[in-house]
Structure formats: structure tokens, C-alpha cells
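Input.
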Amino acid sequence: MANRERRRANRSKRKARSVERRSQITARSEVRNRAAREALEPLQEGERPAIVTVGAVLSGVVAASIVIAYLAGAEVDGERPELLQVIPPAALMGAMSYGMWRARYWAVLGFQAVLALLIVAATLGLVGAETGVQLAGNLALIAVTGTLFYFMIKALARIQMPERAPRE
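Output.
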């Protein structure tokens, strides 16, 4: 019986040490997070980070290319797409372009979501790549979108999520 109680006591000591260690790690990471937040400079009125400007221009170019390709009679798999298949993506990219140009949080976050989807799609494209060109294209897409995504994180932190007005 004494052996069982000793094991139980040791187990509870280990659990207590584990909780202590976790709280110390959490405290250290919170100090690092606080220091990182304090190092960020909020955007001045009318200021826009360079990476957000790049994203706005890219988004605008994509929106314009969708419309131009449709008007030029582009075909997908030998068929011309319906107008309702063209309007939503063009409108989405155009709205994101406008929002990022005005340094809006929702637009940058939406653009990051599109970048994340592109990264996932390109990664899955690597699995089905049959030629070296497909492989290189998917790797290039992952590199470009991953880089944009990474640099937009800090810009998003500087923009900060807008405060909500309390309900009355």
C-alpha cells in the first residue's frame, strides 16, 4: 500500500511541476508578445504599408484581367464561361483591391485568405504535376504567395482590427 501512495504522491508532484513550467513558459511568451506589440508603430493617417500596396495592385490587375479576358472571348476547357461565373471573382478581387488601397483590415485579411487557398491549391498541384514545367510553376506560386502572406502579417498587425462601437 505504501508503494501505491508513494507513486500517487510522485505523480501529483510531477503534475504540479508541469503546471508551473507551463505557466512560466506562458509568462515568457507573453512578455515577448508584449514587446513585439510595443515595437509596432501604428499607421499614420493615409499611410499604407508597401506590401499592402503591392497586394492592392495585384488584386486590381487580377480583377481587370478577368474582365478583359471575358470581353476578349477567352475560353476555359473549350467553352466560354457564363457571365455569372466571371462577375463574382472580378467583383471580389476589385473590392479587395479598393479596400487594401484604403488600408482596411477586412481587405488585407481577405487577401490573406485568398493567398492561403492559392498555397494549398499549388501544394496539391505538386502532387499531380506531370511535367517539370508544372512542378516549377507550382513551386513558384507557393514561393510568391507564401512571401506575400508572410509580409502581410506584420502589415495586418499595424492596421489593427477596428474597434466596434458599443451597442446602446
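The chain has a mean pLDDT of 86.
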